[in-house]
Amino acid sequence: MPGKVGFIGLGAMGGPMALNLAKAGFALVVHDIDATKTAPLKARGAEVADSAEAVAAAVERTIVIVETTDQAESVIIGAHGIVRSAKAGHIVVCMSTIDPFAAQGFADRLAALDIAMLDAPVSGGTGRAQSGELSVIVGGAAEIVAKCQDLFQAMGNRTFHVGPLGSGLAMKLVNNMLVQVNTVAVAEALVLGVKAGLDPRTIYDVVRVSTGASAAWELRVPRILAGDYEPGGTVDISYKDQELETAFAKRLGVPLLLANVTQQVYQMARAQGLNKQDGSAVVKIFERLAGVTVKD
């Protein structure tokens, strides 16, 4: 589709995603509550708007990637949200990881005004957001997905249309649950091995070619060995996602044992002031309990 594209939320994921759209030649109108985050986009020729409402008034498609369900609600259907100015035929692409049931409610509100919505959360972390190699996991009507493929291709290298609206978020929560549970298992395993006298680099090298290997192992262990806890995704975000996962499961009547237990490890990390560090920082909880440090 031709025309300007709106982009709301220029954080650790949204910022590089919007830059990739600009690099691909899209004319952007952007907004973030932190005005300093708009500077790199303005330097690439993007227009800066002072509200979500102002963004939607200037474009035909608006991407939203904010952190929480409450923030998404404010941006999409709030007092100064997209709903206040978007015209019939507008498309809202919600790429935030939020409550699937809430997303359906937003979509219903928009549909009454002939405004379409997709839920299209992404996976891959900040590194792939920067390189444009994200996986985009989409829920919504096929004809609306087709109208946004050009956007998805500029931000990612894989697009999965997994079902009707809400399905993208359900799939994202399934994926995130596996990564978060596995991250806690990775932390426990490393601390156990070091306490037993094993070299942490050797633990990494052996497991990565053995049956204990996983995406979380490859993602987390090098950072832990380097003592690098600069956030790719914070402990707070992991905790928020697990809150979404467990609440979603309750609504569906599905028991989740490991997600609930491991969420408490993230809560322990938050209580110890690790909340703005990378999710791999949960290893510090087990290091303190065991009296060892895992570092190369």
Radius of gyration from the alpha-carbon trace, in angstroms:
20 Å
Number of strands: 9
Helix content: 40-55%
β-strand amount:
5-15%
Largest sheet: 6 strands, parallel
CA-CA gap between termini: 50 Å
Shape: elongated
What strand line-up does the widest sheet have? 3-2-1-4-5-6
Order of helices and strands: EHEHEHEHEHEEHEHHEHHHHHH
Q: Determine the number of helices (DSSP H or I, runs of at least 4 residues).
A: 14
Low confidence ranges: none
Average pLDDT number: 96
Structure classification: alpha/beta
Task: Walk me through this protein's architecture.
Helices cover 51% and strands 13% of the residues. It contains 14 helices and nine strands. It has helices at residues 14-23, 39-43, 52-58, 69-77, 100-111, 125-131, 142-146, 149-155, 167-195, 200-207, 215-226, 235-252, 257-271, 283-290; strands at 5-8, 28-31, 47-48, 61-64, 91-94, 116-119, 122-123, 134-139, 156-163. The strands form two sheets. The protein has a six-stranded parallel beta sheet, sandwiched between helices. Strands 7-8-9 form a three-stranded mixed beta sheet. α4 packs parallel to α5. The longest helix is centred in the middle third of the chain and has 29 residues, at 167-195. It is elongated. The mean pLDDT is 96.
